[in-house]
Amino acid sequence: MISKMVSGWICLLMLVLNFAIFAQDEEKPVYGWKNAAIGNLSFTQTSFDNWQQGGENSWSWVFNFNARFLYSQPKFDWRTINKLEYGKTKSGDDESKKAGDEIFLETSLIYKQGWKVNPYVAASGRTQFAKGYDFSTEPEKTLISQFMNPGYFMESVGLEYHKEERFRTRLGVALKQTVVTEEKFAPKYTDKSDSEKLEKVRAENGLESVSYFSQQFTEATVYATSLELFTNLKRFDEIDVRWDHLLTTEITKYFAFAFTFQLFYDKDLSPKRQLKNVLGIAITYTFFGKKEDFE
Fold first, then answer.
1. Which of 65, 179, 86 is nearest to 131 (CA)?
2. Which residues, including other chains, have CB under 8 Å from residue 106's CB and lie 6 or more apart?
3. 3-state secondary structure of 13
4. Disulfide: which of 151, 166, 176, 250 matches 220 by Cβ 3.0-4.6 Å?
5. 3-state secondary structure 62-122
6. Cα–Cα distance measured from residue 196 to residue 95, given in angstroms and rounded to the nearest whole number
7. What pLDDT score does 280 carry?
8. Phi, psi dihedrals of residue 38, rounded to the nearest 5°
9. Could you tell me the sign of the dihedral formed by the alpha carbons of 284, 290, 294, 295, in that order?
10. What integer best gives the mean pLDDT of the chain?
């Protein structure tokens, strides 16, 4: 059911994106470096004192840092994407918990042959900064993750369609590794064999599809989305899905309204899809480049 729903959404998304793309005129290519880095810090706080209607003191903050580096030449494009996220939240007398935690790096090299579809090679890695806990266990919380436990790595080669910088999509054969550095995390993330030895690396061969799209609706409002799919060659009916959405509206030069939504599905971790969304006002700062470079 999940895979059928995902396939339907993908087809619909591709139709919409292609319609939007072909409705635009092609721009003359610009060669050389095109880099940008932007940071966002959102914070919310609620405090009560003798408030008869009830309520709990709470606070939450999340910091995001995104950087993109593009080196373009007539025969190739070299693109690198970096994403860092970390945040904490606390309600009442409970201890603080993570509101976000991610380290992501992707680099890709596209060989341009003058076609609409060109060959590429790519590699990516994803993990987290801090320890993660399951707070539902009794009598104490249970440690379930930490830096490089797990870590996800992907290498792929295939074909990429790229008409404009704001839209590109690729499809290729891929190698995926899920790794842990400590054996206590292996049963949850990497050890899927019946042998007594715990496996700290789980390798999969499959197909990868990655698509990026962004659209500027007004001078201040930008929408961006990325869709990552992976299927093991031995289990075509199970598709790993990560679908990120970001909608931002600039209020002033340093303040913006931001909404993020993430859908994640990996049957090896959970039979159910996982959802995350954040809505708030953020302090935003462009370290270098232009905000338009993230469109």
1. 86
2. 80, 81, 122, 123, 124, 125
3. helix
4. 250
5. EEEEEEEEEEECCCEEEEEEEEEEEEEEEECCCCCEEEEEEEEEEEEEEECCCCCEEEEEE
6. 37
7. 84
8. -140, 145
9. positive
10. 86
